[in-house]
Specification:
With 710 residues, this protein is mostly helical. The chain contains 23 helices and four strands.
Length: 710
């Protein structure tokens, strides 16, 4: 009778209210337990009936010579299997209906001064609101996560959710009763056995299992919500109660992570500007940065979900795992426990891994083929990503690596159960390794895309080569890119230690710091600027070659001012992007190019000095009145003044079309130009202006007195 009540209550023959009431999610832990069609006493009676069936089967197994023994044992096995299925349905109903093992934290108002907090208050100061997380800078995120990792209770310091047990006391007792009832039985790898004599010599490992080599590879489409097919297969541990537990909690854990990812993505879509709208490029860069922040938030949320599932496992399964009575089948049950827990948490990590790869491919442009750094040609689609977009993508990739680098080890530990101690690698732990490998690999691609985008920047066109020789757009874009990646020095080191890069072939301890990458970007930028400067030399007007020198001067000075240790460009000292290149190579290289180009630029003014030569006194002959030079002598001075005026006006007309935006550089160049010819011109003017070398047109030759030119 107890067995019939157990079967009827767990799987209603009509498939109606009995089953649906079990699968209906509870709103909270305090919901009335009357939704279950079984009373607690009926469940315990059913478990006792299962024990009686096993004892009866053992009784007849010792008396196989009886004529009715085989038929009776077959009937007992059939009844036992029905009871096992019924208990499996109860496990599925309870664990599915319980819902996620996480709940949203209550956002507390931030304290006005962090420095005045007590140690206990500082341990909880990492609880920031969702709005604050969406605008966190790299340093604030790193400080928050570092502080969280130092706390004993890590899960209270990360994420916007917290773990909690979604099971009522009665449900926990019922589930434990089921696991205690079925925990001491043998298994042939597919189902439970009533007799040890039926155990085969070889028992297959739990499924899904790791592929040969222990490495999990992507089998599903990026963005599909899954990384590998292994997490979508049915769980087959050989113990139906574990299979039911794993299938139920797998779907809940996956839905919890998937729902959070979709929530963040929906919020991010609302910030997407209309295509082609003004400022859309800046907005798109903010979207990429926001996507990277959301990816880190998803890592935190996945950790909380896994921790919550670990709490459910320890509450329901762990107290009964030591009640496995048969030592010879103990290792098999331990492997089944490891496979069951791994199956649950692997679904959450699988969803996270797909999200991060989708962020890299869709948001960070890893799907765009820009070719290899140093190649002469460009891959297809290279025009789809400019330098500013590539810089934002590289910063986004480094931000994700930073999150994985800091939180990945903790997530990996949460995915393993030290209490099981099977010593075998699981799908969940393999996915954690794949998470780190995939993140590092894709981040290295974003760094290569950034370097390649500088190399591919067009060398002609007014958009890229300004007609007035001002600072090129490529320079400001590269400065922006260097600033946005500079806060992630530790993340870059994590990438360079594990991947060989075109600019740094060292790995491990031989890997370089982010300064090596910055130096390579500056080198690529200089090559690009020099190529652009050649376009001025190709112009028909020979005076336009002067633009080459001023163009390089403008850009070198801008780089020194923006990135040099003594630069004057104002940036908030507390900003993540207040990056300065303090290595001596930078100033030395920039100054060398700047001074060389300035010398060539000033040489264009030297032509004026050709006319400021002194006239030999012996060639100055006066007329009878002694105050007017003779015609031949006057022409000597006239030719000098007229030559100077002609060349000065020509040079002035050429240089007035140039632009030097920086006021300090403009004043410096004006002083340097004065030093080229003004002293000689003043002496020449003062000497010959008092001599009347022209009878009618003196004012035409003296129309540029030194104070006017100055």
């Amino acid at each position: 009778t107890s067995m019939k009540r157990l079967v009827d209550g767990s799987s209603n023959k009509s498939g109606g209210e009995g089953t649906m009431s079990l699968l209906k999610p509870r709103q909270n832990n305090h919901e009335s337990d009357t939704t279950s069609p079984l009373t607690e006493q009926e469940l315990y009676a059913g478990a006792d009936a299962m024990e009686i069936v096993r004892d009866a089967h053992g009784y007849f197994a010792k008396r196989v010579e009886w004529r009715s023994a085989k038929e009776t044992m077959a009937d007992l096995e059939r009844v036992h299997f029905i009871g096992v299925d019924a208990m499996g349905l109860l496990v599925t109903g309870h664990l599915t209906g319980a819902g996620a093992a996480v709940r949203r934290k209550v956002d507390a108002p931030p304290a006005p001064d962090t420095n005045k907090k007590s140690p206990a208050q500082r341990r909880t100061s990492t609880r920031v609101t969702a709005a604050e997380r969406s605008e966190e800078t790299a340093s604030k995120t790193r400080d928050r996560l570092q502080e969280a990792l130092q706390n004993r209770d890590l899960m209270k310091s990360v994420g916007e959710y917290e773990e909690y047990l979604p099971l009522s006391t009665r449900v926990v007792r019922e589930l434990r009763a089921i696991f205690e009832c079925l925990g001491g039985m043998y298994s042939d790898g597919t189902s439970l056995l009533l007799s040890a004599s039926s155990v085969p010599s070889y028992i297959p490992p739990p499924e899904p299992s790791l592929p040969p080599g222990g490495k999990v590879l992507r089998t599903e489409k990026v963005g599909s919500g899954h990384y590998t097919q292994s997490t979508m297969q049915l769980l087959k541990t050989g113990f139906p109660q574990l299979d039911s537990y794993g299938e139920a909690r797998r779907s809940v854990a996956y839905a919890s992570v998937d729902g959070y990812c979709r929530q963040l993505r929906t919020a991010r879509k609302k910030l997407m500007p209309p295509e082609g709208s003004a400022g859309s490029a800046i907005a798109l860069a903010q979207i990429v940065d926001s996507a990277a922040r959301d990816a880190v938030r998803c890592i935190e949320h996945t950790m909380v979900v896994v921790s919550g599932e670990k709490s459910v496992y320890r509450c329901v399964v762990s107290p009964t795992s030591s009640n496995h009575h048969h030592d010879e089948s103990g290792p098999q049950y331990q492997r089944a426990l490891a496979g069951c827990y791994s199956f649950v948490v692997a679904a959450a990590v699988d969803r996270l891994l797909d999200l991060i790869e989708y962020t890299f491919l869709r948001e960070a442009g890893c799907s765009i083929n820009l070719g290899s750094v140093g190649d002469g040609g460009a891959g297809p689609g290279n025009s789809e990503m400019d330098i500013r977009a590539a810089g934002s993508a590289a910063a986004a990739g480094l931000r994700i690596v930073d999150g994985v680098r800091m939180l990945g080890p903790s997530l990996s530990r949460l995915c393993d159960l030290a209490s099981i101690g099977s010593g075998e690698s699981t799908i969940a732990s393999a996915l954690c390794i794949s998470l780190h490998r995939s993140t590092v690999k894709n981040c290295s691609k974003t760094l290569e895309n950034l370097a390649r985008s500088i190399q591919l920047d067009p060398l002609d066109g007014t958009k890229h080569v300004p007609t007035d020789a001002r600072v090129a757009k490529v320079s400001s874009d590269v400065v922006h890119a260097i600033r946005v990646i500079s806060p992630f020095a530790s993340a870059y080191k994590s990438v360079s230690k594990r991947r060989t890069l075109p600019w740094d072939e060292g790995m491990g301890d031989d890997a370089g710091e982010i300064d090596i990458f910055v130096r390579f970007l500056i080198k690529q930028l200089i090559v690009s600027l020099q190529g652009k400067a050649q376009n001025y030399k190709n112009e028909e007007n020979p005076d336009n070659q002067v633009k080459t020198h001023l163009f390089m001067m403008n850009n070198m000075y801008y780089l020194l001012d923006s990135l040099g240790p003594d630069g004057y460009e104002h940036i908030n000292d507390e900003s993540d992007e207040n990056y300065r290149i303090k290595a001596p190579w930078f100033q030395s290289k920039m100054n060398k190019i700047f001074e060389g180009e300035k010398a060539k630029y000033l040489a264009s003014w030297e032509v004026l000095n050709n006319h400021l030569t002194k006239v030999d006194e012996r060639e100055l002959n006066y007329k009878d009145k002694k105050d007017i030079l003779s015609l031949e002598s006057g022409r000597l001075i006239k030719s000098r003044f007229s030559g100077f005026i002609e060349d000065f006006e020509r040079v002035y007309l050429v240089h007035r079309t140039f632009t030097v935006i920086d006021p300090k550089l403009r004043e410096t160049l004006q002083d340097d130009i004065r030093n080229v010819f003004m002293a000689r011109y003043k002496a020449f003017f003062d000497r010959y202006a008092s001599i009347k070398f022209s009878k009618k047109n003196m004012e035409n030759y003296l129309k540029y007195p030194p104070n006017k030119l100055d």
